[in-house]
Amino acid sequence: MKVGFIGLGIMGRPMAGHLIDAGHELYLYDIQPVPDELTGKGGTACKSGKEVAEKADIIITMVPDTPHVEAALFGENGVAQGLSKGKTVVDMSSIAPIETKRFASEINKLGCDYLDAPVSGGDVGAKAASLTIMVGGPEAAFEKVKPLFEKMGKNITLVGGNGDGQTTKVANQIIVALTIEAVAEALLFAAKAGADPARVRQALMGGFASSRILEVHGERMIKRNFNPGFRIELHQKDLNLALAGAKSLNLSLPNTASTQQLFNACAAQGGAQWDHSGLLRILEVMGNFEIGQTAPGGDD
Ligand code: NAD
């Protein structure tokens, strides 16, 4: 297929790479230079989203936030200016469900389909082509794009109409944030009590406390590797969507709110760019103890 890919950062670059490897014709654009790795494999660098939309039949966006998707689709020389009837726009970024419905209806007016298809699984899942993909939009468009999704991910679900994919992603981000917070509290507790946090993590991996977060983010915490991965500022964006949604739905999400405050505290410490497992660091400040330090009363 002729596929456009806009946004070639931490996630977009490996995802576009898998589509090239699968034999698709890729038309690439980013406001930064297109990575050589992708043109070296046979992808074509374009000078605008408009050019991408003129050349490709399915146009994927993978940019940071709602305003970036709006700029990529409807800005000057954006995708909308290059679209013609029958093409499909697929936004795989994680953005606001309400704005998504507006973007979909603007794209539909041009005779094109729109899918919101955000992902979970992080940079690890993007590289391994094992992302979870949650989709909103018409079934026929979903079936058309599914072979591409299958090259980037494993668990691929059409949840409902436009916006429902993004709503699912917000729900996902609530679970991920609160689980990171729980894992950080547990490992810090264990370490300050004098147990080896690496052994504690290993011991917990088979039981009810087991999770992908304990596995991946727990390991990052123990190795103190806070290079992103998924940046705290992006998770703040996602929890903002959850909390703004909660307000308009008359819903209370108390632990989402408190976890957002911890991310805010990380950002105040200069940590907006840390991986979200860096939430541990603010708990360490509060507990006056770092994982890896000798525990008080410890003998090694
Ligand atoms: P990133 O910042 O690494 O990459 C985004 C890319 O988009 C950058 O290369 C940037 O130059 C480009 N860009 C920004 N505005 C643009 C525009 N108007 N036109 C063209 N290109 C533009 O971000 P990322 O980590 O790859 O995340 C992308 C999206 O995926 C976000 O919505 C994020 O929430 C979501 N996501 C990320 C992860 C993760 O682990 N990193 C996991 C799941 C979902």
What is the CATH class of the largest domain? Alpha Beta
Task: Report the CATH topology name of the largest domain.
Answer: Rossmann fold
Domain tally: 2
Distinct small-molecule ligands in the complex: nicotinamide-adenine-dinucleotide
Estimate what percentage of residues fall within beta strands: 5-15%
How many angstroms does the end-to-end distance come to? Answer: 60 Å
Basic shape? elongated
Structure write-up:
With 300 residues, the chain is of the alpha/beta class. It folds into two domains: 2-160, NAD(P)-binding Rossmann-like Domain (Rossmann fold, 3-Layer(aba) Sandwich); 168-287, N-(1-d-carboxylethyl)-l-norvaline Dehydrogenase, domain 2 (Orthogonal Bundle). Helix content is 53%, strand content 13%. The protein has 14 helices and nine strands. A six-stranded parallel beta sheet has the order 3-2-1-4-5-6, sandwiched between helices. Strands 7-8-9 form a three-stranded mixed beta sheet. It is elongated and about 65 Å long. The protein binds nicotinamide-adenine-dinucleotide (NAD). Nicotinamide-adenine-dinucleotide (NAD) binds at residues 6-12, 29-32, 62-64, 68, 71-72, 93-94, 119-120, 122-123, 229-230, 234.
